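Suppose you are handed a protein chain with no further information: no name, no annotation, nothing but its sequence. What can you learn? This example shows the usual starting point.
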Amino acid sequence: KQPLCSSLAELPKGTGEEKEQPSFSLHAQSAVLMDAETGRILYEKDGETRRPMASTTKIMTCILTLESGCLEEIAEASEKAARMPKVHLGASVGEKFYVKDLLYSLMLESHNDSAVILAEHVGGSVEGFAEKMNEKAREIGCEDTWFITPNGLDAKEEREGEEKVHETTAENLAQIMRYCVCLSPAREEFLKITQTPSYRFSDADGKREFSCQNHNAFLSMMEGAISGKTGFTAQAGYCYVG
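A reasonable first move is to predict its three-dimensional structure. Written in structure tokens, the prediction is:
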């Protein structure tokens, strides 16, 4: 899922006239380089293979929360949220936060408990929010994507007698990122959050303070990088979308 190619094909995928793909070593199992203006695929390696996507999931959690228009609302941490494994904010059961603050926690530090607090606040439950995630994925043409969690932790579920896995493809993930930065009515807010180097906030009652640092190294090391999200789980390995 790492767009690391600098040598591009000149024609859209599927014309039958593409130039030969460049020869170089790419360690990613799947990768896609997409023209964000048009959605055209310029390069791919197993771009349509379904794989777990770890915390790159959180770009969908973020954009759905932004589009819900509830940034100034207060969300409360449930027992489920407080049980989330590291990386986490360390929210306690009943602790309250402003939604906008949790989005920085989500995208800069990739906190798993913040993702659950947001999902339960926006969707009523993790399951309800996952339905919204899958609806949005279909809306933007991502037919090979299935969301179960708002944070990207490895997950499986039974749905109508079929085992479903939390997964996407490099191509679909690029489509989702394209939506976040180019097409969503909340794209400016998405970019503002994901470009922020660091952010400090307190819980809604002012009892505890938190500090977040942006872990997307590409923002400072690659000219032209404007947004991105890292991810890692045992099943997914290291993932990146930008």
